Amino acid sequence: MGKKIRIGIDVGGTFTDAVAIDNETYEILSKKKIPTTHKEGVAQGIIQIVNAILDENNITPSDVVFIAHGTTQATNALLEGDVAQVGIVGIGTGTDARSSKRETNLGDIELSPNKFLRTASTFIDSKKLTEDTIDKEITQLLEKECEVLVASGAFSVDDPTEELKVLDVATKRKLLFTSGHEMSELYGLKMRTATAVINASLIPKMMVTANMTERAVKEIKIGTELMIMRCDGGVMNIDEVRKRPILTMLSGLAAGVAGALMYEKITDGIFFETGGTSVDISVIKNGKVMIKYAQVGGHKTYLQSLDVRTLGLAGGTMVRVRDGKIADIGPRSAHIAGVAYECFDEAADMKSAKAVLISPKEGDPSDYVIVEDQNQNQFSPTLCGAANLLGYIPEGDYAYGCKETAKVAWSAVGDLVGMTAEEAARTALGLATDKLKVVIDSLIEEYDLDPNLLVLVGGGGSAPVLVPALAEKYGENMKWKVAKNAPYISTIGVALAMVRETIERSIGNPTKEDIQKIRRDIIEKTVKSGAVEETVDVSIEVDAEHSVLRAIATGATEFRSKDMTKNQLTPEKLREAAATALNLADTSAKASAGRWTVFDGQIITKKFFGLLKSKQNCVAVLDHEGVARFKNQNAAYVSFEKGNNEDFDEFLYENTTFGDANATIPRVFLFFREKMLDLTGMQTAEQMKSIMDDELSVLEDQEHIIAVAYS
User: Fold this and answer.
1) Which pLDDT tens digit goes with each residue over 302-317?
2) CA–CA gap between residue 240 and residue 203 (Å, rounded)
3) Coil/strand/helix, residue 291
4) How far apart are CA 93 and CA 123, in angstroms?
5) For residue 276, how far is the Cα from the chain centroid?
6) What CA–CA distance (Å, rounded) separates 222 from 217?
7) CATH number of the domain at 85-190, out of 3.40.50, 1.10.20, 1.10.3470, 1.10.8?
8) What is the pTM of this model?
């Protein structure tokens, strides 16, 4: 039998990329890029690129155990207004009827300038919710040219019966339909309705694409189910896409950070996916991507998507000159101005140049710099050229260009502002990193990240243009790296992504029964989306401030029996990896459990001329391969046997903070066998114990567990 292969496909607006990855080693076996087949349909391009990868690498369809693709279709449809008109059936009664009617009447949603999602709404008093009444109201919505229906009831998260009555009538009439309770189990009628409406508007177009891509994979005779990338960094099967296409919105952004998380095995980091026009910045903390609710057309939704910050800084960003000084950079890029980069093949004959100020687009200020060479050809000085000139781009990198032509172009800029080429390039790159630093500082504060343990990770075609210079700005303690195969990092993220699902419920003070029920429900939902039940990991959070109980689950589409001893490091190599992860000179191994080893070290800080000393206990937990799955410079740990919970109880008590009104438990992770159990979302010891009872029930009493805690 051949190797087990994972295939990832990233369908972009210009190119379709694909990679084949060894399922056991994560070695990249093949990379491929073809123009996206818009005219013939994206499915045709998928057939072409997958067949090419199979043929060129002697891979048989039966070797493929996972295939997934990411798509920008939902995002593009919203940006371009290429969505269906939606009819909304609002439901409510009594004193809430007036507010329910108002909150389910969204009007037209402006998606982008002069692009709208059109809606029409009706409202039915739930006391009059008969089949005839529903049928009559649906007919009126169809007469207003609505293509998809949404039912949204005031209290459907508690009892969806009323929405299901509308579904029954819509089903009999063979109409496309979605409902509020399917989108979210949280209170908040307007947000729930908006989420359902945006989802519904995408259904007709996405169903066509889903059917075509599913047929394409079957035509190739790949036996495994086609998975689709979600906006939170996971994947789901194609049946779920037909029902919840909204989850594919912004999935292209999520794919890159998924690649950094799975392929680069980042524990705590900030990921930069840098292209030619913009950079997308996202956060990984404790081995998880950071998520927030998305907004569409000014409407808040219950769509949980990657928290991404986008800046108009990238490889092609142009420089601006005012009053004899380099005043700014961007947001316009060479692509937008329609001129070539100064450091790539088109500029090979540039021997001399003079700088000219232009307005790239109508209405833009005329302070953007381009240069004209001796043959009157026009080129743009870019951040990519500046980074090449200053030596940040290694030879052979995708962004590597000609330093000689970059110097000619930046010398022309320098002549304009009284600088050398290198000074002008460094000034422009400094302006870019100043803008980036503002965003990074805010993310560090918002997510309570420790700069000493962070790594800045560059991905995308222009990965080394910004990250090394930004790390320099922070100083020598800031770690950074360019991801391996950076131009393909999004495609790699698609290939390695796990099935992911989230359930949120409006529960203020969840009981043990509430926690156990949401755990059972999220496992069932994740399996329904394509995961094998034995692989599903569940993380549960209690958001006391917003009275939300949240369950997040991830799982694999196939049962993995990876030999964890294959790449096992020696104890000495593990110790070195732990020291690197914690940014210390040395660490000590303290305990092991399953594939995990806990290491610690100390940071001693002297104050008041050395008279006072403070100590910080640094803790890292590494797997056999040397990947730090937890690291913190102020944490505690304990190793205990499953049959001796008293040691854990004492540890939890010692790390609990007691105030006048209540006790605040620490954030806790458990490590055992192959598993890392995240308990950081628990608010009370009782909630924590309820999850531990379920998760640890599979262990023998003598099996060891590592617990780490931090505040």
Assistant:
1) 998 999 999 999 999 9
2) 11
3) strand
4) 10
5) 20
6) 6
7) 3.40.50
8) 0.90
